[in-house]
Amino acid sequence: INTGEMVLDFDVRYDLGTVMYDRIQITDGTDTIILGISDVISERGDSIRLNMDSLKAALVNNMSSPILKMDEGAVRFGGAHSAVQSVPIIGKVQVGVVIPDTYQASRHMVELSTEHFNHILERSDASWRLEVVFNDNERQTVSLLELEQSDIDVVIGNESLLAKSRIAQPGMIVMACCDASTDYDIVRGDPLFFSLVPSNNDALDATLAMMNDMGINRILPVYPANDRAILDRINYQAQVAVADGIQYGFSDSSEQIVSSVADAIASDLVMLPGVRLGVLLTSAHDTPRILEAAYQDRSLTTVRWFGLETHDGILDSSKAKFFAQEVGYMVPYIGVLENPLTVSLDSYMYGELGYAPNKTAFGAYDAVQILGLSILGDADIHNSDIDKFADLNVEANDVAGVISGISSEFGGYTTYAGLAEDGGLEAPVYQIQSVRGDAWVRTAMYNNPVDAKVGTISFGDAILPYIQYVAGEPLIDDVVQVGLLVHEYDAYEAGLAARMGLALLDGEYSLVVEDVTNNDIQDGMRLFSDVGIPIVVVHAPESSTLEASVHAQNHNTLIIGTASTGVQSAIQNDNTFRMLPSDMWQARALAGMMAHDNIRGVVAIYPDQTQAQSLLEGVADVFAGEIDMTHSYTDISNVMRNVTLSAIEMTERYGHEGTAILALGDGDDVGYLMDNALGTAGRINWYGSLRVAGSPSISDMTTGSINLAALSPTISGGGHAQLILDSLYLMQPPAYTSSLFEAARMAGMVMTQSDSNADIARALLPSIADDSNLMYDDISFDENGDLASYTYDIWRIDDAWIRDSIYDVMTGYASHIPIGVMVPLTGHDAQRGIQQMWGAHLALSAQNEILEQEGAPWRLSQRVVDTASSPIVSLGAARDLYNMNIQAALGPPDTVSVNEIGRFGSYSDFMLISCCSDAPDVYNSYVVYLGSTDVHKSQTILRMLGDDGVSNLLVIHDGSSTILNSLASDFSGHLNVQEYDAIDAHSRVVADADDTLSGMLNLYDRSSVGVLLLADHTDTASILGEALYQNNLQYANWYGVSTDGVLPDILYNPDAVATATNTNFAVAVPAIPKDVDELKAILRMVIGFTPSSDAYLMHDAATLLSTTIIQLNGDSTAPAVAEIMPLLAADLAGITGPLALENNQRLTLSHDIWRIVDGKWQLQKTIP
């Protein structure tokens, strides 16, 4: 779009030299451009590059939805003439990137953010994409000029690029990211400069705030002689007394500096009674040597020490590190927030780079998003359906004019990224970090933003909870610290799972990780005690957990472990809880799983460890067949030969189908063993324990033709558990990761509710566990502190790990029957989708409890697919489910998607139960619809108007509502209708409406005039906000109708709230059923906001579908479900009322009428 270059990509190679350009044209039906040979840059056989002149480029950019038309014979393929083709043109806006190679994490962040931004555009069927162009010239000034010559007006770079751009003056937008600080004087000096990097003054503000928070009333600066300005800044910004400080020169030794500090401290403490002194080290470079020298003088530990930024040199010196911990040395650090997206970013970058990214790199992700949204001109990327490429902001001044507003409305993914009018951060967020063990750990936050859970977002193909940020206050907020002790596992990957668990909690948590694989476990536990962390998650094998447990019992520390425990190790009423069932149950499950598969002879392979031996003995006690227990190993490379010989002997007695190998090592061990399984050992079934299931070390490449089954504690069949697993590492994690995830969540909740008191935590933990689960449907502990669960998921390896069945130790084997749940987890309907997913889950969980009690040989589970609020994606989701052999599904909530899926289902045997859409066009036996009809909504609106005496109505609608026809036929008064398009500016919409209403107010009594707004929640909020500045629109009552709750977007827009209050804006919403307080409370807790009727309607839809499948004894095929569902529905009552179906529609839903009172939605009445 910015350069006029076009690329024609061909799926099949064409014959070079055969292109007839006069048969290729670009048109929108009104204007047409015929291409010519002069436009060609190159032909490659699979593509043609064209560079149109400025006139042609401008004409294309101003076309409405341009397409490329190729007449017959425009090109040849293998000698044959091409057929006529018409394809839409996708526009690209280029953004330059000038980030040095040394900033690899930042460069990867830019690429990933662009990929995710375009992924959403593609799923929204948008006609444009963002493209980043890296320029790697060693001289940044040259890079800027080269990008300018390529007509690129927007550039992302590191902090130094601002100064280079100031010299080069290219007239481009430069957005700085990826550094710890910047010079705001440069940023403020140019209206095209912006920075997501805080200034040095911001860091000082954060340090002074934490000193004030700790009661420091006198500051002793310690600063180098070449930075006298820092003392002036401290004096200017501090609100307490500032000493003259200690100035030191280049030649001064660390001991001389520390001696001067000691003298000053001694003097102040003697001369100033009541003084609370804080030492402030201003040079991060010099800090390690100063702290190391201070270690020798105990008098220096009587005051608190602070700095302006972190320095890893402190961690490299044992003395500096010890002193820093002893005096509580604290520094501000650029404020990346712990949320699901940043944890996933960390995970992804760790996988790409092999190391954890520097936190400064995260700003690059937000930089791309802000610039992309500014180019679009809308903070909601889902409003990306532009009509013309010229509607996009491409010129530097156009982008600069909207960046501040867009960034503040967007809020940021990794931190609060709102930019002030001067181009700097509006409220820069800082982590307050201290040294804990061998790492910097977040202990508090400065300018912590206000957050709200507002649905979900797309992280590539993963779906993550979305947290919306608004600016915080310049105060210090505490962070709850949770300990994680790791032994013999990958500490970083374990930390990611635990961090994800904490990120999904309300509040701020920081994970303190101690990897003691090569160190003493007691020392690691002692660290947590020393820094006041009384609750520790221990991710380690049983023997290591037991060692940590001894320390915990002696030092009043609470442990939540992730290892299963043998019966002989269980101790009642100790301080150790475990997020896995006892090995007694695992042994019975392994034996039962093999018995179910008719295995009679087993060759066991196991590490020479107590727990493995104990587990195998437990299997042998309950297994009815023969087990060869002679193959333990300390050196895994030498074990398979003898195992193979034993397997041959077993097959001679029981045959290949009756013989199996039981491998009790971890995933790495079993992956190695299977990779080296030859002959008979490679042709019989293998079974694995809970450390095997889901292991990324095992794939279909590893197993070859071997059938492998492994078990893990049963995780929830709900979509939320599926989404969490998908997002943990953006790859298949080990199944036992779920126990670590839940353990961290529980530790965080217990820490908060017990105020970090171990005795209180021990008493509260069992009751908190009942409400803390996400991965498990139920968390409770037995008398030994083990997870009180007797059910295991059975995982089998195919193209990937598949969870295909359940083994219940008490009732036996049960298969999974998946139900599709197609809901919008991203896009403008995301809030609806997340509560519908949970509504379905709670209904299916209730049915599964009944199935379990009745001993049924199957259970129901959800398979969630995101429809992205798009009919195109919805249809693709239905096809995906169908290809998974799932023929019955719930959702989605929009009418267009239901129509598309209904047509697909009518010829593909695919059953859809939609709970919340308007009346569909497609009626057939494979579409069942639960919802309020247009006729009933129209009648509700008429009741509202009649109650208020409105007989003259202006209707403003977006063209998508189907209610208008019913309303027009039944409304007896005067009706004016104003339709607007998606591309119309809302200011123009309300201006036109104000003109129309002016005439109506002149003709009719004011009390009889009303405005009905039929639009989605985003447009409604925007139009109400714009209406505040139109006088006539404030003199009429306004009305609306909603299928997705009480339009929460309005409350985020103060102007919209003002208009809604002034005009008594009343919204009709499908009524929330009565007597559902318990269900409502559960939904409110898990989704983070008050549910609308969507959740309850989906609950009823899921109940209807599951009841039908139960009646069919587990048959979920579309023809069977379609045949008996209407018969069952006739006698079935849901929580929203009777479920009897008539013409595939629900006719009896009541509507609640809501108005905004004192800035909040309040229920006014219910219209039956």
Number of DSSP helical runs: 36
Total number of strands: 51
Parts with pLDDT < 50 across at least 5 consecutive residues? none
CATH fold-level name of the largest domain: Rossmann fold
On the 0-100 scale, what is the average pLDDT? Answer: 89
Distance between the termini: 54 Å
CATH architecture annotation of the largest domain: 3-Layer(aba) Sandwich
- Sheet having the most strands: 12 strands, mixed
Which homologous superfamily in CATH is the superfamily of the largest domain?
A: Response regulator
Shape: globular
**Helix content, binned percent:** 25-40%
Beta-strand residue percentage: 15-25%
Category by helix and strand content: alpha/beta
Radius of gyration: 33 Å
Q: How many domains?
A: 6
CATH class of the largest domain: Alpha Beta
Tell me the layout of helices and strands.
Layout: E1 5-9, E2 24-27, E3 32-34, E4 40-43, E5 47-51, H1 54-61, E6 67-70, E7 76-77, E8 80-81, E9 85-88, E10 91-98, H2 104-123, E11 128-134, H3 140-149, E12 154-157, H4 160-168, E13 173-176, H5 184-188, E14 193-195, H6 200-213, E15 218-224, H7 229-237, E16 241-242, E17 246-248, H8 254-271, E18 277-281, H9 287-294, E19 304-307, H10 313-316, H11 318-326, E20 330-334, H12 340-353, H13 363-376, H14 396-410, E21 430-436, E22 439-446, E23 450-459, E24 462-470, E25 476-478, E26 480-486, H15 491-503, E27 509-515, H16 521-530, E28 535-539, H17 542-554, E29 558-561, E30 576-578, H18 583-596, E31 601-607, H19 610-622, E32 626-633, H20 640-654, E33 659-663, H21 667-675, E34 685-688, H22 700-703, E35 708-713, H23 719-728, H24 737-753, H25 758-772, E36 791-797, E37 801-808, E38 812-823, H26 830-853, E39 858-866, H27 871-883, E40 888-890, H28 895-908, E41 911-914, E42 927-929, H29 934-947, E43 952-957, H30 964-970, E44 974-979, H31 986-1003, E45 1009-1014, H32 1017-1027, E46 1037-1041, H33 1054-1062, E47 1066-1070, ...
Parallel strand pairs: 10-11, 10-12, 12-13, 13-14, 15-16, 15-17, 15-18, 18-19, 26-27, 26-28, 28-29, 29-30, 31-32, 31-33, 33-34, 34-35, 38-39, 38-40, 40-41, 41-42, 43-44, 43-45, 45-46, 46-47
Antiparallel strand pairs: 1-5, 2-3, 2-6, 4-5, 6-9, 7-8, 20-21, 21-22, 22-25, 23-24, 35-36, 36-37, 37-38, 47-50, 48-49, 50-51
